[in-house]
Amino acid sequence: MTRLLAQALRGGWEDLGRRLSIVDGAEAWSGSMLLDRAEAIGAALASENLSADEPAIVLLSNRAADFAAFLAVWERGGVVVPVHRSSPPPVLDQLLAITGSRFLVDGLGEDRWPPAASTIDAVSRRSTVLVLSPPPPSAPDPLLRDAAVVVFTSGSTGQPKGVVLSHRALHRKLANNADILAFDHQARTQLVLQITFSFGLWLSLLTVTRGATLLLKQKFVLDDILGSLAEDDITRTAWVPTMLRTLVAARDEPAVERQLAAIRRKRRLHHLYTGGEVYSASLAAAVAEALPHTGVFNIFGLTETGTSDFVLRPEDILVHPGTIGRPAPDVAFRIVDQDNRPVPPGAAGELQIRTATMMTGYLGRPDLTRAAFADGYFRTGDLARQQAGVVEVVGRAKEVISRGGNKVYPQEVEQALQTHPDIAAALATGVPDERLGERIHVAVVLKAGRAVDAAALLAWTAQRLDKFKLPDAIHLLGALPVGRTGKTDRGVLRTLALEGRLG
What we know:
By secondary structure, the chain is an alpha/beta fold. It folds into three domains: about 5-140, Rossmann fold; about 170-395, ANL, N-terminal domain (Rossmann fold, 3-Layer(aba) Sandwich), CATH 3.40.50; about 400-500, 2-Layer Sandwich (GMP Synthetase, Chain A, domain 3), CATH 3.30.300. The chain contains 15 helices and 27 strands. A nine-stranded mixed sheet has the order 2-1-11-10-12-13-14-15-16. Strands 4-3-5-7-6 form a five-stranded mixed sheet, with helices on both faces. Strands 17, 18, 20, 21 and 22 form a five-stranded antiparallel sheet that branches. The longest helix has 17 residues, at about 30-45.
């Protein structure tokens, strides 16, 4: 089976040869250097008998060698499972169990492994590959046939869901995005978003497979990011709205305004991509004032549909603020009621999407895969309406929290807290926030006679959840908020938090 993304990556780097491909801090990687690193990783995988369609967890943190690891796994027929290097041990253990992977791959080539690896039995250790024991109990899931990646998203039951995307689907999405986003070979892309998430993944792959230059950032530090935009001749970057709100809030600082002035004078930053939540009218206006020569694309999509399903283009940003724009190529959609019947024009209903770049399914969860579709359309759980030729998302049917562009299910936060020996119950909800979109508030009830403070609970949770899922506020209560039926009610908790009545 042809591995389309492997061909695209190798072809791009072979064309570049000794010319620059990726800048990783002080290190500049040429196409040839990346190919050499991929060959070394691939040799280790081959010697350990990575089989066709076998999943391999690849540890990532926006480093150049991460992309060499992608190529090595794909050229050996494997499937990349991207996981951040900083993920706590329980997260890594859980993903190993779900995927049945017997490989950990670290393209940095260092003879050390993250803390979680020390708790795992290994049958072989190489500089870039750790082979685990025992081997997986059964053959790979049929969904992994010709799969490129398994991207994990939060699950509504608190368990992460492995979204399987094929080479064909992801390769086609990259081609579509290249057309939509006016992507050219001379682009210099600044990557702040993590490549463990879909947005950062496709943007970085689009850059390196098209022979453009990728400048990697490991974290968002406003001064550093603006300095790079001003000094490194960046032509495009991608920020989630939380980052944009941070910029807007800091505009009165003299140092920030000087950096923005330098960016405006150079006029090199042609495009800025954002997504993850609705791009509000006020934020759009503020960003347009700060960066008047930069075209902003607001991108809406889901991991399950390959992302980038709708695009609000620069010419529409101020005309249709607060909407998600128009459908991308290969995307059909419908807005329906609870019986999957189309709603009248202008009415709100569930947004459902059908696309050629759809996921193959949820790894190991045929029940969830079946439930996710209706008549071939993916059920987004978002409430939307269509008017004036564009689509507007007006709410969420699901209870997912959108914090800083990341989607977090409250049950996942609750389950992590409820593993604490002093906690009897926990209830999480999202509370609107100007900068982050939403903040995560959790009500906690302690077991009788127990005493623990919120700071200690947060530290406990930090060992069990990724950083973006950590609560922003933990409220110790005598009982969880309930609604009229007597059941625990997230809406009531949200209202109490908004009104400042949680202490």
